[in-house]
Amino acid sequence: MENYLLIYRSEYKAAPTATPEQAQAMTKKWMDWISGLDAKNQLTDRGNRLDPASGKVLKPGNVVTNGPYAEIKEMIGGYSIVKATSYDEAVEIAKGCPIFQVGGHVEIRSINNLPM
């Protein structure tokens, strides 16, 4: 088994405004999906949501800028790490992600233990 990083992305300007009930229902879908992965021993790290209203970028020359940025098209909303035997299996795991219900998508990256 290998570890794969699932990066949850969505359009920054298309972020839905949900009622509290809709937000609670979506949170339940995420919790159910993550719990299902854990029950199947496919979850390495459930990850976390990322705050869309904060962030820093470090650029060459030790230049630090604040975020978020008006010019970005996509935001990374969060991540998880799953276990799979191949990219194909990781893609199948990602297909159940609730982010697709709000127009988002999932980037799937292999995590290898090569020296930096």
Give the SSE layout.
Elements: E1 2-11, H1 20-39, E2 43-49, E3 56-59, E4 63-66, E5 74-84, H2 87-94, E6 105-111
Antiparallel strand pairs: 1-5, 1-6, 2-5, 3-4
Describe this entry's structure for a reader.
With 116 residues, the chain is α+β, with helices and mostly antiparallel strands. The chain has one domain (2-111): Dimeric alpha+beta barrel (Alpha-Beta Plaits). It is 24% helix and 37% strand. The protein contains 2 helices and 6 strands; from the N terminus they run βαββββαβ. The chain has helices at 20-39, 87-94; strands spanning 2-11, 43-49, 56-59, 63-66, 74-84, 105-111. The strands form 2 sheets. A 4-stranded antiparallel beta sheet has the order 2-5-1-6. The chain is flat, with a radius of gyration of 16 Å. The mean pLDDT is 88.
What is the rounded Rg? 16 Å
Task: List the total number of helices.
Answer: 2
**Quick one: how many beta strands?**
6
Q: Output the CATH topology.
A: Alpha-Beta Plaits
> Quick one: CATH class?
Alpha Beta
- Number of self-contained structural domains: 1
Global mean pLDDT: 88
CATH 4th-level superfamily: Dimeric alpha+beta barrel
Name the beta content range.
35-45%
